[in-house]
Design a protein that fits this description.
single chain; 352 residues; alpha/beta; 6-stranded mixed sheet; 6-stranded parallel sheet; 11 helices; binds NADP nicotinamide-adenine-dinucleotide phosphate; binds zinc ion
């Protein structure tokens, strides 16, 4: 075992501050990674503040972070795919049972014994896992991803959550040429959703509560932008969308978006607000529309997404910050003031 530098929160109301975490020495199947960048996902904030307490209560102290990009420093004797010096990435999962039907089908994210990168029971050390706001992590080779060498590393880190979470449902629901696709909420997930829908050839509309994001939305690949609080603008799109991805982090009405779906259209929720959302039955009845959810993506699909990003030169638009600014970044997330993902430069942890 060894100590790694990290940032943690001690309670739902305390700021994140510097600490040390214990990491295991790499076992034979493990890869040890020096973390160079870690994206800040709104899920980090939800969990630091225990907003998901009804579903997955937070264990303190918590070290968040599941958009990890770095360099391999050591590998176990049975590791075959990575060598010291390689670039490597880790997303929201660090383990699963590998034997259940979900794992066998490539859906590790739905394995009943899946281990999340942070705040999940740690099978090796006891307690809970510590995430990527840290300078080092040790992860089983199966859960380590390869970053295409042409991608900027800070911009690639958010692909490990924001990227796969938006790519996976778009592939599942057949987003492509000839489809009209909406993305609700232009934050970290939303801006990746726009890039993917555009790259897949769909006609893309962004729904935003922030009129000042209009130009950015068009630059990111949107064909049109709708200010969702403007009922007239919304009405113009009634019953016209094949697919809408809702990536909103806070309480909001989904009925108005269901009304925008065409016959057999689908609204997929990836946003995970604290409180249940109200579903108007009639919106679904007329038009045989459907409402679903989606959770990140499996390991093979995550690698497929990274390779797609390599081929299309897609990364997140990041604002790189030192870790000392993480608490300020959380406040800005709550004001929808993120363009469009914060990525922590982990070198800043050494100067603290
Ligand atoms: P984010 O960067 O903070 O973006 C959220 C966006 O939602 C904001 O930029 C804003 O966009 C919009 N928004 C915020 N408050 C709103 C309100 N009151 N009403 C309407 N729109 C509002 O968050 P993120 O990191 O992209 O994460 C989004 C959500 O997805 C979070 O709940 C997160 O936990 C969840 N998530 C789920 C998965 C999964 O596997 N399903 C994975 C990762 C994250 P505009 O300014 O454009 O309105
Ligand atoms: Zn995330």
């Amino acid at each position: 075992m060894y100590q790694a530098k990290a940032y943690s929160a001690r309670s739902a109301t305390s700021a994140l501050a510097q600490t040390a975490v214990t990491r295991r020495d790499p076992t034979e199947h493990d890869v040890q990674i020096e973390i160079l960048f870690c994206g800040i996902c709104h899920s980090d904030l939800h969990q630091v503040r225990n907003e998901w307490r009804d579903v997955m209560p937070t264990v303190y102290p918590i070290v968040p972070g599941h958009e990890i990009a770095g360099r391999v420093t050591k590998v176990g004797s049975a590791v075959t795919r990575y060598r010291p010096g390689d670039l490597a990435a880790v997303g929201c999962m660090v383990d699963s049972d590998r034997t259940c039907p979900q794992c066998q089908a490539g859906f590790e994210q739905f394995c009943p014994n899946m281990t999340l990168t942070f705040n999940s029971p740690d099978k090796h050390l006891g307690g809970v896992t510590s995430g990527g706001y840290s300078d080092s992590i040790v992860v089983d080779e199966h859960f380590v991803l390869r970053i295409p060498s042409n991608l900027n590393l800070a911009g690639a880190a958010p692909l490990l959550c924001a990227g796969i979470t938006t790519y996976s449902p778009m592939r599942h629901w057949g987003v492509g040429k000839g489809k009209k696709v909406g993305v609700v909420g232009l934050g970290g997930l939303g801006h990746m959703g726009v890039k993917f829908a555009h790259a897949l050839g769909a006609h893309v509309a962004v729904f935003t509560t922030s009129p000042n994001k209009k130009e950015d939305a068009l630059r990111l690949g949107a064909d049109e932008v709708v200010v969702s609080r403007n009922a007239n603008e919304m009405q113009r799109h009634t019953a016209s969308f094949d697919f809408i991805l809702d990536a909103v982090s806070a309480d909001h009405e989904i009925g108005p978006f269901i009304d925008l779906l065409a016959r057999d259209g689908n609204l997929t929720l990836v946003g995970a607000p604290q409180k249940p959302l109200a579903v108007p039955a009639f919106g679904l009845l007329f038009g045989r529309r459907s409402l679903s959810g989606s959770l990140i993506g499996g390991i093979a699909e995550t690698q497929e997404m990274l390779d797609f990003c390599g081929a299309h030169n897609i990364t997140a638009d990041v604002e790189v910050i030192p870790i000392q600014k993480v608490n300020e970044a959380y406040e800005r997330l709550l004001r929808s003031d993120v363009k469009y993902r914060f990525a922590i430069d982990m070198a800043s942890l050494q100067s603290a």
